[in-house]
């Protein structure tokens, strides 16, 4: 199949290559074996609702980790753009989707934690004609109810081809999954487009959260995003919340949910299991979306 094609072409070193180029080639080549060698894993970062008294766990985001035999731990910010270029992202993305759905379903059964799992989609995956089917297969093979899967997209992905975007989003919504715009505020979304897309969440990029509560422009931007999102009927998640001061500001501005080191770091599977099994651990109830299938 076409999606595997990008994975077979090796690049070779030449004397003229810069260190950066060599590193990129090295990563590109090593990544081709990462799935087979079981070098990829997912960490899970819990997120909390902050409206209401105590912070209650209401979801988690699956974050890819790669511990390569040759290269050690490589950050997603380094290898995902490369995987996007050489096409490996399609295989990797499918693996992530399958793994995250199976894991969320296993935890649902074991801990009674009906926690939605959020999966990041890359631009190439979003444009892939197979995406919708791939999502259906991941849900069916895992048994995870569709409303417990969230897909994170970026503004630039949404704004590329509005017609096609609308068609893909409608197909995903028909399955019953939730849709989130990640890193919101860093791209150039058209508000009228945003309004016309069937989205559920905006995730405020952590670069705006970092300056809270002191930085006046960050504070103004965050306030505006929350107000706008609520007007459009979207829930707001703030990313990268690290301090009590940031949390207090966000709470006062009616931000719905937070994700960040203040609440929890991304956790390896074993640590997430300890987290989920903590006595008294509270999970927010997530109702299926009205009108959704399944
Ligand atoms: P993202 O989707 O915006 O994910 C949030 C990033 O912020 C994660 O970085 C997370 O570890 C980090 N983070 C969470 N809380 C805090 C905090 O309080 N402070 C700070 N400084 N950082 C925080 P990570 O895991 O390195 O991932 C980076 C990016 O790589 C992600 O950004 C996402 O765009 C991409 N990525 C990760 N996993 C996948 C994947 O499975 N597929 C695709 N396509 N992209 C992925
Ligand atoms: Mg994300
Ligand atoms: Mg992202
Ligand atoms: Mg983000």
From TrEMBL:
Ranges for domain EAL: 24-280
Name of the protein this chain belongs to: EAL domain-containing protein
Provenance organism: Duganella radicis
Species classification: Bacteria, Pseudomonadati, Pseudomonadota, Betaproteobacteria, Burkholderiales
């Amino acid at each position: 199949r076409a999606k595997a094609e990008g994975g077979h072409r090796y690049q070779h070193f030449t004397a003229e290559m810069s260190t950066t180029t060599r590193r990129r080639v090295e990563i590109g080549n090593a990544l081709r074996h990462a799935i087979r060698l079981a070098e990829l894993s997912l960490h899970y970062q819990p997120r909390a609702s902050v409206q209401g008294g105590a912070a209650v766990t209401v979801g988690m985001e699956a974050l890819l980790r790669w511990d390569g035999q040759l290269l050690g731990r490589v950050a997603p910010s380094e290898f995902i753009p490369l995987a996007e270029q050489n096409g490996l992202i399609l295989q990797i993305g499918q693996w992530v989707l399958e793994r995250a759905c199976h894991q969320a379903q296993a935890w649902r059964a074991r801990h009674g934690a009906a926690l939605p799992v959020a999966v990041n989609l890359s631009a190439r995956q979003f444009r892939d004609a197979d995406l919708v089917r791939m999502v259906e297969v991941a849900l069916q093979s895992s048994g995870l109810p569709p409303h417990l899967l969230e897909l994170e997209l970026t503004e630039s992905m949404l704004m590329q081809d509005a017609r096609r975007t609308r068609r893909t989003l409608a197909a995903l919504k028909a399955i019953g999954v939730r849709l989130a715009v990640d890193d919101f505020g860093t791209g150039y979304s058209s508000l009228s487009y945003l309004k016309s897309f069937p989205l559920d969440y905006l995730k405020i990029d952590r670069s705006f959260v970092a300056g809270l509560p002191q930085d006046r422009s960050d504070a103004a931007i965050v306030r505006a995003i929350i107000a706008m999102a609520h007007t459009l009927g979207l829930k707001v998640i703030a990313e990268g919340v690290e301090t009590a001061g940031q949390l207090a500001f966000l709470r006062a501005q009616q931000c719905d949910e937070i994700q960040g080191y203040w609440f929890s770091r991304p956790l390896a599977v074993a640590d997430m299991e300890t987290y989920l099994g903590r006595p008294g651990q509270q999970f927010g109830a997530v109702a299926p979306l009205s009108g959704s299938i399944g």
